[in-house]
Amino acid sequence: MRLLVTGGAGFIGSNFVHLTVRERPDVQVTVLDALTYAGDKTSLAPVADKVTLVEGDITDAELVDRLVGESDLVVHFAAESHNDNSLTNPWPFVHTNLIGTYTLLEAVRKHGVRFHHISTDEVYGDLELDDPAKFTADTPYNPSSPYSSTKAGSDLLVRAWARSFGIQATISNCSNNYGPYQHIEKFIPRQITNLIDGIKPRLYGKGENVRDWIHVEDHNSAVWTIIEKGQIGETYLIGADGEKNNLEVVEALLEAFGLAKDDFDHVKDRAGHDLRYAIDSSKLRDELGWEPKYTDFQSGLQATVDWYKANEAWWRPAKEATEAKYAAAGH
């Protein structure tokens, strides 16, 4: 199989490439990545001799057409994905998430290539903190930020191309990922790297906002399950029953470092901060037989802490600029 992974130098994409090389050695992997601040070729260094890396933009129609034409399967991770950044400058999110996805869809349509689209649970908006409901594939879309709205738009483009033009596509919407190679602008790795530097964690507002956490290895094993067993045209939600509010995550991180659970600082809450996400992954589990491996959040978090401690050379170069940007925003 000839596999094209867009965004394969990013957090989830690079972990997907690692998993593929490790468990499917017969798959020929090509990565297309623009290598923006969130994409790092060093994330692929351990598998560099087994992967072809092409630096380029998914809105480059000529390049995309050539690479898709040489592939049997496209897995589309490439996206602008940071909510805070989307509030500051929405354009890159429109450019990559909408125009980039359109460009890929036209190429897979032309060449008849199987396509899997990676999306987020944030397209569904949020749930009330005391609501027992969870997101399902039938939950109406209700995005609340430029990031989530452009991801919702990209999902709808995939659905339209599948229905109107018959492309062989599936979609997955996943809850919040954590694990190795995640950019330190994100919540968990930012707190981990701050703690390594002796800086207290910072918590938005009261820390009541809930996210449904999943280890990136579980996300990617689910993606392969969908590719191999999923029904064309269907959407599958990926989650590991990992609901934690932000306060609980900070407390778990402090525990992983052997510190007191109240040893953190509060900061002003983020604008438009969604209250709660929760994934119902029963369709994926019941129909396709997938199960997560990392069912204990504390142990998965400890493994992630250990990785950042052992790989300072990977994250250190971006730390100063990341913290300067947060400081300018008062966070």
Automatic annotation (TrEMBL):
Pfam annotation, one family? GDP_Man_Dehyd
Q: What class of enzyme is it?
A: lyase
User: Which GO terms are recorded in the biological process aspect for this UniProt protein?
Assistant: nucleotide-sugar metabolic process
Instruction: Quote the EC number.
Output: 4.2.1.46
Q: Name one GO molecular function term.
A: dTDP-glucose 4,6-dehydratase activity
| Keyword annotations from UniProtKB, A to Z | Lyase, NAD
Q: Does the keyword Lyase apply?
A: yes
- Residues annotated as domain NAD(P)-binding: 4-302
Q: Which reaction does it catalyse?
A: dTDP-alpha-D-glucose = dTDP-4-dehydro-6-deoxy-alpha-D-glucose + H2O
Q: Which cofactor does it need?
A: NAD(+)
Q: Which family does it belong to?
A: Belongs to the NAD(P)-dependent epimerase/dehydratase family. dTDP-glucose dehydratase subfamily.
Protein name as it appears in the record: dTDP-glucose 4,6-dehydratase
User: What taxonomic lineage is listed for the species of origin?
Assistant: Bacteria, Bacillati, Actinomycetota, Actinomycetes, Micrococcales
